Amino acid sequence: MFTPRKIAVALATALVLPLLTATTATAAPKPTDPPTPSIPQKYLDQPITWSVCSFDAQIKALYPQAPTTNCAKVKVPMDWANPTAHPDVEVAISYSKATGTSKGLMASNPGGPGGAGLTLSAALATDKPQLFSDFDLVGFDPRGFGQSTPLQCITTAEALNALPVTPDYKERTKLTHKVEKAEAKLQADACAATEFGQFVSSQQTVYDMEFIRALLKARQLNFIGYSYGTWLGGWYADTYPNKVGRFVLDSNMDWTHTQWDNVNFDPFSGQRRRDTQLIPWIARHADQITGLGKTPAQVLAKYNGIRASLVTLVKADESSVRGDGLDGNIYSAIYGNVRFIRATMDILVHDEFVKDPDAGEVTVQHVDRAWARLAPELQAFDTLAAIRARYGVSAAALTTAGLEAAQADSAKSVLADARETAARATSGDQPVNLGAIGTTVRCNDTAWNKDPNFYTKEADRMAKKYSFFGYMNGVPMCAYWNYAPQDRKLDLKGSPRMLIVQGELDPATSYEGSLRTHNDTKQVTRFVAIDDEGQHGQYIGSASACAEAIGDRFVFSGELPGKDQVCGTSPLPAELSVYPVKGPVDGKLVPLPKSKAGSLKVSPLLQQTLDRVANNTLR
């Protein structure tokens, strides 16, 4: 009989076990679940001012039969444990009534931490219209982010101007260590500068979710969560097991372990996705992509050469276009299969730049010349306007939402933008808002090692082991976080079964971490693995018709498979067949359900939402 343990082959075990055994961030005491707070009646009795959401017209343009989606902001305590101790904050919510007989309230979260989810439930329904007919839909921006009361990470121009700089975070030098520590401390101080910082956490958001359920008078909460949304879903189920309806947890974090355990998987899983899928895909399409190579070895050598040239130009003070910036762009782009074209464009744009770096930054000419190096069949998967917007050389053809979804972001680029603001400051004590940094949630959720040297040593080790992005974690701001975390020990006691869906080669939430969480909770979770699939986000618009069908049966009829499953998938863009990858899922162990070749296209609004989360993933 097939079990998840049987599909963890020796190769994956050899790669991952060092991550599980040698990199514990801290010997923290075992977490204790906090008391579950009651909801003060005044919050349930508050008047709600609904108005048609700004995105409702876009929803109806995509699906004319959609019900009207209304939006509002509702007040919640800053700290649910002490509702009167601080000013209230607001959570932005959206809501639509089922057009048929409602099966209940369906919520969702796109990931993050910090992903804005106000549009997500309606966006999912434009791709899966039965959601409109079968469920009352609610979307929300988690506290601290999007249109909810924003987390403000406040520093000063003087502090920003004093930060040291390094030409390349991949170069593991004393200077890089100094830079990482200084940046982490500045971010921690900035995000703790207001009283709200300590309450932007998963546990407080879970309380907000339960409040939304109670406010809308739903008996239970149904939920579709992606990435960090699986962490939220797991925590909600552990906090309110008797309120759990149908939960689909897709592209799972290892939510029975720590936030550090999760981020420490990323260099491994990101490297695997790039090296086993993106680079071979580019090589297979050498006749449609000019000048990157005909074999994986040639493509990798070309990438490394472009990156080295970028670093050389930065060191010569002739450019602001960074090699580690290229790495970050690639890492976020390979979240989605259709975004392989965008990742390829990132390489081509930087190749054009190093050939002609006189402007010191990427220009529209670089982007346009790179675009011309793609065959029309590949250009059809993206737009020149979106690529121009990605590089900030033109945004006229995109909406604000489309622009946000195209532009990659990271904690390092946030600091670079803040430095530009600081350089224009009229005084050193002028405040500068870094914005809402999602790492704050990670700091508040679990205990972290407080020795920054632990992280520099770990990044040094990972950089040697995983050459693509092993250095990505560096020193987190959590090393300097002064507030005590509120962790949980998840056992899901009393919860009904939930569905876990996981691609084998996911770059952002590793298969091995998802499997570990399933093994910790197998009494209440059913696990669906997708062989040879690396997209981050599977259910709804999935590359796997098998996984989509399993999800549909659960969401719309409540039926789960009788045992854990392995699904097949469909080809990558512009291909007719699935290329097998040696990894932790062995599809030969069981007959794979057939999967039709999909168009790889989902609702534009849903794609914008997922792109936005991917592009902010390193922030």
Tell me what you see in this structure.
- Belongs to the peptidase S33 family.
- Residues 473-567 form the Peptidase S33 tripeptidyl aminopeptidase-like C-terminal domain.
- Keywords: Hydrolase, Signal.
- 41% of the residues lie in helices and 10% in strands.
- It has 619 residues and is α/β, with parallel strands linked by helices.
- α23 (545-557) links the parallel β11 and β12 (565-567).
- α12 (296-315) packs across α14 (340-355) and α18 (400-406) crosses α24 (604-615).
Q: What profile does the largest beta sheet have?
A: 10 strands, mixed
Alpha-carbon distance between the termini?
Answer: 42 Å
Strand content: 5-15%
- Taking all Cα atoms into account, the compactness measure Rg is 23 Å
Percent of residues in helices:
40-55%
Q: Which secondary-structure class do the elements indicate?
A: alpha/beta
Total of DSSP H or I helical runs spanning 4+ residues = 24
Q: Residue ranges: pLDDT <50 for 5 or more in a row?
A: 1-24
Number of strands: 12
What general form does the structure show?
globular
| Adjacency order of strands in the biggest sheet | 1-2-3-5-4-7-8-10-11-12
Mean pLDDT, as a whole number? Answer: 91
